[in-house]
């Protein structure tokens, strides 16, 4: 009641000079009273009454801002300064209707003020669509990218493409985020195919990228199709070959150095790498494609020769493993040479193949177990592989090839070769290691007995004694 009386006094004493009874006031209380005051351009009084009575002041501030900014200005500078003053006041009063005010200003031909108010809008979901409404797609795209909202980026991108066509492409390609979204959209859409073909004339590296994506999809499709019983693997393999041939054609059309200007292509290519991968050199890329086509050709030949579909989609290393499993060491050696496989990778391939076939004797030949020569891939690879197959007795024969005695001790424990561990400690004069070893097996009297037996079974080497003498 007191607040209403104060409002009635304020109305009476103001320039409006509005006299009314309490009953009249109650009939106008709320939006109707503020609406009448706004029509009379008494924005400050309307704001005071709404704020004092606890009503929403958003409409009042919006009308005030429009009144301030739609009046005639002598210059653009004056219009911008007034807009900045309005923004400051709206921020001060915690009003956030910038986007809505901006659209109304644009309709009234106040473009500069509208842009400044949209710049002040902090909610991208409000800001970007309004920028598009006032025909500012470039700024809208920039704000969408800054926000990180892919839906807004796509909306701005489609507006640009629809209104500017191919002229929008340089802007879309200037940012890695919009570039990725555009290329992804173009990959699956048929709507703007002509636009895309025109773009590929000046950016062949993007055509290469899309062809690679298509190849990867074909490859994934082949993997899924091969799980079906009646799948025709030859047709599926031919589809992959056709896709990689398209990549080869695209690579030849590339402008030298084109890849170096396209971050999206470099980011996507690692998924397609088989050997060395794509680079900024078109010649290197062409070699990569040639090797991949050669790989597909080898896969096809080997499937036909051995009737083994595991060769399909196999990497070079996997193909070598399968060749060894089929006993074709000569073919495996040829693949090693033609694809530049390292000795280490080839050794791993043979170890994997022999393990799969349970050819334990061939594993010992590969690891040269009877001699002191270290395997190319290290003795630990053989020990771990054999232990995984539950062959502790065979694994312990490789322990002496491990150079570090601490690592040897760990493998002795894994192989339960207590006697060998004790002998190794004595041979290298390591009583501290012997103590640690016994602590590790505390509670197992039989293991401790074997460790002592190993320690007592050998003499300490002369080299160790000499080292102690001069220590």
From TrEMBL:
This is Vacuolar protein sorting complex subunit. One of its GO terms (biological process) is intracellular protein transport. Gene3D superfamilies: Vps16, C-terminal region. Pfam families: Vps16_C (PF04840). It comes from Trypanosoma cruzi Dm28c. One of its GO terms (cellular component) is HOPS complex. It comes from the Eukaryota. InterPro entries: VPS16, Vps16_C, Vps16_C_sf. One of its GO terms (molecular function) is actin binding. Residues 97-207, 282-442 form the Vps16 C-terminal domain.
């Amino acid at each position: 009641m007191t607040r209403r009386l104060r409002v009635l006094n304020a109305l009476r004493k103001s320039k409006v000079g509005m006299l009314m009874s309490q009953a009249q006031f109650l009939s106008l209380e709320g939006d109707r009273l503020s609406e009448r005051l706004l029509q009379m351009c008494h924005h400050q009084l309307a704001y005071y009454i709404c704020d004092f009575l606890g009503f929403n002041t958003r409409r009042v501030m919006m009308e005030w801002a429009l009144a301030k900014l739609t009046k005639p200005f002598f210059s653009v500078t004056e219009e911008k300064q007034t807009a900045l003053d309005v923004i400051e006041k709206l921020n001060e009063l915690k009003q956030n209707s910038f986007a809505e005010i901006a659209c109304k200003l644009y309709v009234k031909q106040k473009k500069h003020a509208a842009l400044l108010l949209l710049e002040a809008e902090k909610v991208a979901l409000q800001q970007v669509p309004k920028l598009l409404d006032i025909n500012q797609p470039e700024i809208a795209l920039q704000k969408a990218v800054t926000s990180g909202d892919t839906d807004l980026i796509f909306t701005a991108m489609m507006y640009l493409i629809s209104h500017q066509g191919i002229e929008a492409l340089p802007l879309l390609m200037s940012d890695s985020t919009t570039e990725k979204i555009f290329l992804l959209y173009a990959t699956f859409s048929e709507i703007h195919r002509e636009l895309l073909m025109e773009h590929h004339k000046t950016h062949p590296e993007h055509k290469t990228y899309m062809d690679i994506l298509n190849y990867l999809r074909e490859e994934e499709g082949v993997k899924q199709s091969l799980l079906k019983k009646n799948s025709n693997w030859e047709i599926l393999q031919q589809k992959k070959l056709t896709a990689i041939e398209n990549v080869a054609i695209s690579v030849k059309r590339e402008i030298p150095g084109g890849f170096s200007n396209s971050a999206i292509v470099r980011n996507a290519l690692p998924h397609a790498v088989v050997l060395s991968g794509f680079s900024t050199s078109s010649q290197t890329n062409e070699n990569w494609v040639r090797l991949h086509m050669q790989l597909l050709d080898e896969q096809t030949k080997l499937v036909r020769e051995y009737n083994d579909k595991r060769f399909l989609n196999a990497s070079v290393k996997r193909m070598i493993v399968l060749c060894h499993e089929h006993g074709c060491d000569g073919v495996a050696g040829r693949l090693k040479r033609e694809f530049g496989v390292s000795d280490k990778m080839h050794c791993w391939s043979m170890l994997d193949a022999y393990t799969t076939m349970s050819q334990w004797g061939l594993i010992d030949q590969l690891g040269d177990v009877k001699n002191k020569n270290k395997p190319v891939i290290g003795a630990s690879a053989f020990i771990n592989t054999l232990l995984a197959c539950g062959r502790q007795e065979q694994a312990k024969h490789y322990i002496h090839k491990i150079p570090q005695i601490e690592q040897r001790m760990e493998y002795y424990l894994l192989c339960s070769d207590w006697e060998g561990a004790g002998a190794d400690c004595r041979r290298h004069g390591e009583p501290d290691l012997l103590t640690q070893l016994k602590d590790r097996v505390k509670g197992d009297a039989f293991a401790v007995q074997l460790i002592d037996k190993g320690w007592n079974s050998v003499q300490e080497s002369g080299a160790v004694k000499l080292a102690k003498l001069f220590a």
